[in-house]
Amino acid sequence: MIKILEVNNIDTLGNRYNGYDMIEKLSGKEFEIKQAVIEKRSDNPNVIEILKNKPLKVIHDKIMYYEEPKQSIKNVLSITTPALFKMKEYKEADIVHIHMLHNSGLSLYALKKIAKEKRLVVSMHDPWLLTGRCVHYFDCNKWKTGCKNCEHLDTYFPLKEDNCHELWELKKNTFNNLDVDIIYPTEWTGDNIKESPILGNQNHLHRITFGIDIENFSSITREEARKKLGLKDDEVVLFHRAQNEFKGTPYVLEALKELETDKKVVIMTCENKGLLDEVQDKVRVMDLGLLNDKEMITAMNACDIFLMPSIGESFGLMAIEAMVCSKPVVVFDNSALPYTTHAPECGYLVKNRDSHDLSLAIKHLVEDEKDRIKRGKLGRKIVEEEYTNEKYYKELRKMYLEVYNRKREKQEEEILPETNDNTEQFKYYLNDVTIRLFGTTNKYGKSLMYKPKSKRIDRYQYHYSDPVLQEVTLDYFNKLEDIAENNPDISFDNNIKLYIEKTLYLVVHNPKFLLRKLMRK
Predict the structure, then answer these.
(1) Contact indicator for 226, 302 with CB cutoff of 8 Å
(2) Which of 56, 116, 186, 471 could be stapled to 51 by a disulfide with Cβ–Cβ 3.0 to 4.6 Å?
(3) C-alpha count within 13 angstroms, C-beta hemisphere, residue 379
(4) In the predicted model, is pLDDT for residue 518 greater than 70?
């Protein structure tokens, strides 16, 4: 029996595609599947928490808090990494499958060790692995050349300092000569992988599209759903996920302001409320707020048209949910959505970020019922052929067997120099972390202190792809994990919050000032 460990930040949220549902769908004679998570919400015995006690969770939370907003890095510092390596389930696993790496709490440094010890699978739920920082790169193509001089540090995940090139180099060096199998969901993502200097040389790629439960979305009729939501027969209902970050809501707002039609139009939204209040004098606005699965199925069946003019999308699950309910989907000519919806034959294609063209598309579909029905029927047919749960799990099973039976590639051993200025400076930084966690006299803190040989300088740009720095970082957090695991009653310095908010920033920007502060204490 092949033992598989699915690794993610949480179990039940996003359970269909983060490994949780695989426990039920694929476990049996061939596979024994378990899931390792940071936050466990279910009572499933096959889901195991990576962080076993409060000190480990405290350290994890502090790292997550200051890595991005304070240090402008992502997936570098990690207490989750050494904790995972100690898990019985990890040691017994034949395959380790990581989902949403950027949410997992794992360090990128961990991937080489996992690939040496296990068969490693990484799922790409978005293009984050191709970039230095961002989850969706929109119209920027700097991910193809190194992510230098980032112009959009405020998008998800935001950074104060532009470390994007360093993080891009870290990913490039991590995946160079790495024996890993990568899952991607769409042809669009596959095309991007081919163009990527980070993943373009990978040989073991698997295109596996997500699936949905068709019967579940057919559990209520259009008439029943409209009656439940109080919608009238003569109203043409648009449905949209209202969210300013990625889903194109500002363009929907402008398009509806411009819309001219004799039809009675309703715009129904989920998630955020109030984003379309400006058009209440033209169309009826129904803000449903956050919806559970059952409520979402009702809303999808009740609407006539689904608006999904996202400016960043790697697959577009809600588009598939609309299609299985026989609804036409309006999408911008960007990202993965034209591929997912088979636009323009099925999905209705609109010029990217063009609210006028979006308004014309809405007007056409509102007034042309025949085209709505035609596109809706085609969408249902496409889902039945391409996007079923049965097909999804069948392809996963095939992939796992292929990964297990494939001869693993030999990975070259890195020859590391004893030390360098980069890592010596980084040891000063780790010492500051230790001092603020434990104080200056605590026995645990003393055991973690380094004795750097070089002098601290005012400002240092760490080269995070440096293999020596990686070894130092892994060593430090392995020792810190030992202390936290073996001392469940340990308490941290009371000034830790102040440290997170102010001191770490000083480590990078004014370390001499910080040293003077420490010396005065």
Answers:
(1) yes
(2) 56
(3) 29
(4) no
CB within 8 Å of 495: residues ≥ 6 apart: 436
Tell me the pLDDT tens digit for each residue of 421-438.
788 888 888 887 788 777
Residue 63 CA to residue 79 CA, distance in Å, equals 8
| pLDDT surpasses 90 at 98 | yes
Q: What is the CA radius of gyration of the chain?
A: 25
In angstroms, the Cα distances linking 399 to 26, 120, 191 are 12, 12, 20
Rounded distance, CA 397 to CA 3, Å? 13
The number of beta carbons lying within 10 Å of the beta carbon of residue 402 is 12
416: how many CB neighbours lie within 10 A of its CB?
Answer: 13
> Which pLDDT belongs to residue 496?
47
Secondary structure class of 258 (helix, strand, coil) = helix
CB atoms within 10 A of CB 494: 9
Matching residue, tokens 């007034």: 367
CA angle 473, 479, 485 (to 5 degrees): 130
Ranges of each domain in the chain: 2-211+391-405, 215-386, 421-520
Its sign, for the CA torsion 240, 242, 243, 244, is positive
**Which pLDDT band, with edges at 50, 70 and 90, does 131 fall under?**
very high
pTM: 0.89
The distance of Cα 461 from the centroid of its chain, to the nearest Å, equals 26
> What residues contact 323, with CB distance under 8 A and at least 6 apart?
329, 341, 346, 376, 379, 380, 382, 383, 387
* Omega prior to 344 cis, within 30 of 0: yes
Task: Reply yes or no on domain 2-211+391-405 having CATH 3.40.50.
Answer: yes
426 C-beta neighbours (distance < 10 Å), count: 23
Q: Is 268 helix (H, G, I), strand (E, B) or coil?
A: strand
Instruction: Identify the pLDDT of residue 424.
Output: 85
CA distances, 238 to each of 206, 280, 308, 311, 443 (Å): 35, 14, 10, 19, 63
**CATH number corresponding to 215-386:** 3.40.50.2000
Distances in whole angstroms, Cα of residue 494 to Cα of each of 286, 434, 439, 498: 48, 13, 9, 9
Contacts 24+ apart (CB under 8 A), 60-64: 60/105, 62/496, 62/500, 63/105, 64/105
Place of tokens 């930084």: 429
Phi-psi region of 316 (alpha: psi -120 to 50; beta: other; left: phi over 0): left
Instruction: State the pairing for strand pair 264-271/235-242.
Output: parallel
- Matching CATH topology for 2-211+391-405 and 215-386? yes
The answer on pLDDT for 520 being more than 70 is no
